[in-house]
Amino acid sequence: MNRKVLFGALLGLFLLAPSLQAQNDIAEIKKTITTMFDGMRAGDSSMVHSVMKDDVIFQRVTQNREGKTVVQTSSFQNFLNAVGTPHDKVWDEQIEFGTISIDGDLASAWTPFKFYLGGEFSHCGVNSFKLYRTDNGWKIFHLVDTSRKDNCAMN
C-alpha cells in the first residue's frame, strides 16, 4: 500500500512540475513587463532598460497619411531618453494581461492598454511583447503596438 501511495505522489509531482514551471515563467514575464511600465511612470530610464535587450526593436502598426497600414520602427535610445527626461505629466500606461505563450526560452505576451498622460486619457491599443529567457530572467527583445483614441479593448 505504501508503494502505491509513493508511486502516486511521484507521478503527481512528475505531472505537476511542467505546470509549476509555466506558472513561475508567467509570473516572471508579468514582472518584467510591469517593471517596464513602473519605470515609465517613475521617469526611470535605467529601470526600463533593465528589462530590455540592448538592441530591442520598437515598432507600431499604424496608418500613414494615405490611410495605408504601415509598420513604423522607433529608436529604443530615443525612448529611453524621453522616459528619463523630466516631464510635468506622469506617463501611465495601464495594461491588462491577455494571452502569454511560452515555448522553452521564447515567450509572447499580449497586453491591451490605455495610456494616460498626467491622469488624462491619451490613447489605447494593444502591446505585443516578445521575450527571451536569459541568465538574469526574461528580457524584452521586441515590442510592437497599436494606437487609437477609441474602441479600446480595456474597460
Global morphology = globular
Assembly classification: single chain
Averaging pLDDT over every residue, what do you get?
90
Low-confidence regions: none
Helix-strand string: HHEEHEEEEE
Helical content class: 25-40%
* C-alpha-based Rg, rounded: 19 Å
Structural class of the helices, strands and pairings? alpha+beta
What's this entry about, in short?
This protein is of the alpha+beta class and 155 residues long. 35% of the residues lie in helices and 41% in strands.
What would you say this structure looks like, in words?
- By secondary structure, this protein is an alpha+beta fold.
- It has helices spanning 2-42, 45-49, 76-84; strands at 52-63, 69-74, 91-95, 100-103, 106-117, 120-134, 137-145.
- Strands 1, 2, 3, 4, 5, 6 and 7 form a 7-stranded mixed beta sheet that branches.
- The mean pLDDT is 90.
Descriptive tags:
155 residues, alpha+beta, 35% helix, globular
SSE order and pairing:
Elements: H1 2-42, H2 45-49, E1 52-63, E2 69-74, H3 76-84, E3 91-95, E4 100-103, E5 106-117, E6 120-134, E7 137-145
Parallel strand pairs: 1-7
Antiparallel strand pairs: 1-2, 3-5, 4-5, 5-6, 6-7
